[in-house]
Amino acid sequence: MPHTGNYFAWAFDNDGIGRLSQNVTTVAGGTYAVSAWVARTVVDPANVASIRLGAANTPVACTMGAAGVWAQCTGSFTAAAASERLDLLFGTANGTGTIAFDDVTVTQTGGAAAVQPVPTLSEWALLALAAAAGGLGLRRLRRNG
């Protein structure tokens, strides 16, 4: 029952809060939008989910509806370092269902931009460009003179 595609993650933890996590590359001071689609198999107040980017940030609780119905969970976070841990947090009551996560995205929405290298031409491409420019210049000189 994926939200989209062929795969999704099932999670359960019958004792406290569990976590699925992955480190993601960020820019310190950058603001990020995190989105995840969540669903639960059983409606129980103890079956909860939340998302967080960076251990210093407070998790955002996900609002889930009926069993088997996907709901989008979103939050905005500020990165403190060049790499932050993305946490998908979940809790389930003893033996009362699972939480599913799908289509998780992390998008930079503000703050300092990531440094992008300036594209450069290869040595051969520069030689070809110089030859073409020289040829055009020579052609113009012959027309004018």
Outline:
By secondary structure, the protein is of the alpha+beta class. The protein has one helix spanning 123-144, and strands spanning 9-11, 18-25, 31-40, 48-53, 60-61, 71-78, 83-91, 99-110.
Description:
The chain has one helix at residues 123-144; strands at 9-11, 18-25, 31-40, 48-53, 60-61, 71-78, 83-91, 99-110. It is of the alpha+beta class and 145 residues long.
Keywords, separated by commas or semicolons:
145 residues, alpha+beta, four-stranded antiparallel beta sheet, 1 helix
Quick check: average pLDDT?
86
Taken in chain order, the helices and strands follow as: EEEEEEEEH
With strands numbered from the N-terminus, the spatial order across the biggest sheet is: 1-8-3-6
- Fourth-level CATH superfamily: Galactose-binding domain-like
CATH architecture identity = Sandwich
Distance between the termini: 75 Å
Structural class by SSE content: alpha+beta
Q: What portion of the residues fall into strands of 2 or more residues? A: 35-45%
Q: What summary fits the major beta sheet? A: 4 strands, antiparallel
The name of the CATH topology is Jelly Rolls
**How many domain regions?**
1
Radius of gyration over alpha carbons?
Answer: 25 Å
